[in-house]
């Protein structure tokens, strides 16, 4: 697994959890998105 694949997997998991942690993502992800 490459580093890019690892990041993609994390992003996919986070997207799957948006219904639970959307407020948190809006505060944290804009810095990395």
Tags for this model:
33 residues, mainly alpha, 76% helix, 0% strand
Structural class: mainly alpha
State the shape.
elongated
Total number of strands? 0
Q: Using only CA atoms, what is the Rg?
A: 10 Å
Mean pLDDT: 72
Total of DSSP H or I helical runs spanning 4+ residues:
2
Low-confidence stretches: none
Structure overview:
The protein is mostly helical and 33 residues long. It is built from 2 helices and no strands. It starts with a helix and ends in a 5-residue tail after the last helix. Keywords: Plasmid.
Put the structure in a nutshell.
This protein has 33 residues and is an all-alpha fold. It contains two helices and no strands.
Topology:
Elements: H1 3-16, H2 18-28
């Amino acid at each position: 697994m490459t580093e890019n694949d690892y990041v993609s997997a994390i992003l996919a998991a986070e997207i799957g959890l948006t219904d639970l942690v959307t407020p948190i993502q809006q505060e944290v992800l804009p810095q990395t998105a």
